[in-house]
Amino acid sequence: MFTSAELAVQGALDAGARYADARVVVSLSESINVQNQNLDRVDRSEHVGVGVRALIGSSWGFAATPDLSASAVRSAGARAAGIAGASRLVPGPPVEFADVPVTQATWETPFTEDPFSVALSEKVDMLVEVTATMQAVAGVEIATGSLAFWDTNTWFASSQGHRIHQHLVESGGGFDATAIGEHETQRRSYPQSFGQFETGGYETVRAWEYQANARRIAEEAVALLHAPEMDERETALVLEGSQLALQIHESVGHAIELDRILGWEAAFAGTSHLELSELGTHRYGSELMNITADATLPGALGTFGFDDEGTPAASVDIVRDGIWVGVLSGRDSAAIAGLTPGGMVRADGYNRLPMVRMTNVGLQPGSGTLEEIIAETDDGVYMSTNRSWSIDDRRLNFQFGCEIAWEIENGELTRMLKNPTYTGITPQFWGTLDRLAGRSEWVHWGTPNCGKGQPIQVAHTGHSASPARFSNVRVGVKG
Amino acid sequence: MTDPRHLVDTVLEIVGARADAEAVADVGTSALTRFANSFIHQNVSEDVAEVTLRVAVEGRVSSATTTATTPDGLAAFVGDTIDIATHRPPDAEWPGFGGRTDYPDVDHWDAATAHAHPTARAEAVRAFVAAGDGTAAAGYCRTEAHDVAYGNTLGRSAAGRYTTAIVDGIHQTPTSAGSGHGAGRALGAIDAASVGALAAARARDSVAAYDVKPGEYEVVLSPECVATIAVFLDAYGFNAKVAQDGMSFVEPGEQQFDGSIDIWDDASDPEALFVASDTEGTPKRRVDLVRGGETVSLVHDRRTAHRDGVESTGHATAAGDVSGPLGTNVFVGGGDASVEEMIASIDRGIYVATFNYCRVLDPKSLVVTGLTRNGTFMIENGSITGAVTTMRFTQSFIGALAPGRVRGIGSDGRFADSEFGPTMVHAPSMQLASWNFTGGAEG
Questions:
Q1: In angstroms, how far is the first alpha carbon of chain B from the final one?
Q2: Taking CA atoms, what residue in B is nearest to A427?
């Protein structure tokens, strides 16, 4: 496959590009969906093709084709150069390209059980049984379970001499129960909303013990129909780990993307409340807040060996003791900002342009346990599992809804509450982080549905988190 | 370029007598020129050649998609798909494939757009940027051309083609932004300079934006905002699977909306986009969703139709087994008011250019939270008196259009950039009695 990538690069160079790179990608995915013990869908997709980038002057072009014949691949390279030429009609400032090691390497996700080799019947049977267990709880109307797997091989070549083969394996899934009232629905999910996804094989699915948790989840969904609504007030908020992971994703992960900070996403994904001039001095949160972007974490969903520009995976400090110190960047964006490229440029398949994406943007753990945090809280609420999320284009004003909450009174969980929400402003919210559980409850939560870019791209990102407490948060916002 | 009909025929031939099967082939090009800080920074084009196959072996069903369309690739693809089907349990609700049928004469195609050169998109970008007069521009110009074919082993066969073109973006000052939007079948029909000029005007008019107190305000919503309301009603309400799951607000025959509200889905409308059949080869039928404020009906695919004992309306989607059918040619009926007339009738209210990041808090009541973006203006005593900063809202989209709540509908219907994109909904501006703003961007 390197030959095809090299032909694409050569096609671009021959057409006048001063730099070119190409990725031949063979990606296989499988998804399985069960609802109420019926297998609704089993789907496999295979996407094979080459995508090539060409740089002429200060302008980029990108072309992709599923046709891997020599003529088509070379033509794609030439087309990328032609598109770069058209870009020069509305040119920008000179493009610098930060140096990275020119590497010839291979890298593979460590895994035990190839998820595509596990019998389909085993995977389906497991989901059918889980939904049966949930349906056995009176009041559950909809019980769904799903699994998804990805196997992606990429051969990357650049005009600078990169030759990298990478094989990523990702697995995950989850289930949920929905109870329906007269004018409302209540849902509970496990391991988290949209499921939990990791790099690795089917062993990652087994580890979550779906069946052992199915009945509890179903009972909680039904109980929520009869639970009281949360009152609107300011109070201490304890977040379960997966909800905190999404909080990190939305209010930190996107805000620190250098392309957003530079304005490249202004019209769609948005910009950022952060300004480069404040890097190293801006207080993002309390001193308990230490965020890293670490693409080397074993098992986390945003882990790989090299990004789609050939930059080696790295761990980068983003927030240290509450101070903003790092960004997510690629070779061109880092050069503009005068920073070292972080190896965070990835594409959603051969036919998409690599762009700055999160890797594993996680909150380093503190100490103690969730149980201890609750015991130390006189008055507050504990919220778990995301139900809705909304944040403005600068990643400043957010409102999250969770599936379930409990009041905390005098150090104990008391009443279950339904339709919990909380809202806040990013730096103010993170500034109230006053308690953070330790490594024993630190989980590499995976987000499989991060949308960004035009045409839209969906990235798989990781967010390590343990439960945490925030003070004086506005909760219970209603429509 | 590969003929999609040939791909479909080849795949079905490989399937042979081993299974019942349907195949959809999509062949074409998709190109997008993106700009930010007033220059083109991303510029992409891809050849599309993709086949989706669904097979049924004695009620055991599987589906698969591939871009590997070489003879060897297709042979392996078909073999794997059949193998997966034979190893799964029967689908208790499998409705089977559809038989031969007729299709409306629809050809939403523009040859110039289909063959648009990168320079044509760059020229549109240049016109959008130039309209700004010193403001910074960001956005995109997209052209797509698709030939789509469908075939199944019962003899159903359909083919169609379509083009789409979009010019969409913002102009920015250091403290504000405004948006402009254009979409349709033909790039040549979009005046990129006008789209850019509207964005620039909104940006300039928003420079001195101020915070306003949260609360209920009468509003005038742009076509973009109305399109987002409509697409949420579409996906979370008129989707028959959602209704069958008991999650929809829809109550056919009930006056759930103001009498001025008409919403329908019609792929054969001269202004519509996309092809005349769905992913199951069913002709897309015009469906009245709301007529005179009364909820009329749902959209169906073959599975939901089978459950309800009705005919599919032709609204199957690629992942419809999980997410259900969806209207993709949604029209919101227009009125006779101008935006200026609607604003003139308001003592104190807010004009909103676009919604952003809308998320459903409860699907059954369709309570949604989201934010305003790229142009939000205060209305006082019948006039725009200034710009306001980003505001968060939490609002039932059904309640917003409830009987007596719609005070005006614009005559400015067009394809509008909804939360699901700019090609699904054709909508006008609308004046609503109240909208619940719950906070500002800064707290």
A1: 54
A2: B442
Q: Tell which phi-psi region holds residue B38, choosing left (phi > 0), alpha (psi between -120 and 50) or beta.
A: left
| Same-domain status, B318 and B385 | yes
CATH of residue A54: 3.30.2290.10
Rounded CA separation B204/B186 (Å): 29
If asked whether residues A401 and A291 sit together in one domain, one would say: yes
Residues of B in contact with A387 (CB under 8 A): 361
Same domain, A189 and A246: no
B406 with B336, same domain: the answer is yes
Instruction: Answer with the one of A164, A190, A225 that is the final residue of a domain.
Output: A225
Domain co-membership, B171 together with B218: no
Closest by CA position to B107, among listed B186, B14, B204, B219? B186
Residues B179 and B274 in one domain: no
- Write down how long chain A is: 479
Amino acid B362: pLDDT: 86
| Residues B12, B109 within the same domain | yes
Domain of residue A345, residue span: 233-475
Q: How confident is the model at residue A9, as a pLDDT?
A: 98
Q: Is A39 on the interface with B (CB under 8 A)?
A: yes
Gap from B421 CA to chain A (nearest CA, Å): 10
Can you spell out the DSSP letters for B248-281?
Answer: ----TTS--S-TT--EEE-TTSTT--S-SB-TTS
Who among A86, A178, A184 is closest to B119 (CB)? Answer: A86
Domain boundary among B145, B167, B202: B202
Average pLDDT value for residue range B208-213: 94
Q: In chain A, which stretches have pLDDT less than 50? A: none
Q: Are B283 and B408 part of one and the same domain?
A: yes
pLDDT in tens, B91-100: 988 999 999 9
Instruction: Say whether residue B41 is in contact with chain A using an 8 A CB cutoff.
Output: yes
Shared domain check, A207 and A282:
no
Q: Are the Cβ atoms of B394 and A477 closer than 8 angstroms?
A: yes
Please check whether residue A402 is in contact with residue A386, taking contact to mean a CB–CB distance below 8 angstroms: yes
Q: Which residues of A touch B66 (CB under 8 A)?
A: 45-48
Closest alpha carbon to B298 in B318, B314, B282? B314
Tens-digit pLDDT profile for residues B227-277: 999 999 999 999 999 999 999 999 999 999 999 999 999 999 999 999 999
**A188: three-class secondary structure by DSSP:** strand
Last residue of a domain, which of A225, A242, A275? A225
Of B45, B322, B390, the CB nearest to A397: B390
- Are A380 and A461 in the same domain? yes
Give B19-48 pLDDT, tens digit per residue.
Answer: 999 999 999 999 999 999 999 999 999 999
* Count of Cβ atoms closer than 10 Å to residue A442 Cβ: 19
Q: Enter the ipTM.
A: 0.95
What pLDDT is attached to residue A402? Answer: 97
Instruction: Quickly count: other Cβ atoms within 10 Å of residue A226's Cβ.
Output: 12
CA proximity to A92, closest of A63, A52, A57? A57
A251: which DSSP letter?
Answer: I
Contact criterion met (CB < 8 Å) for B442 and A397: yes
Identify whether residues A62 and A207 lie together within a single domain.
Answer: yes
Expressed as residue numbers, the domain containing B100 is: 4-202
Measured CA distances, B423 to A106, A257, B220, B371 (Å)? 42, 28, 22, 21
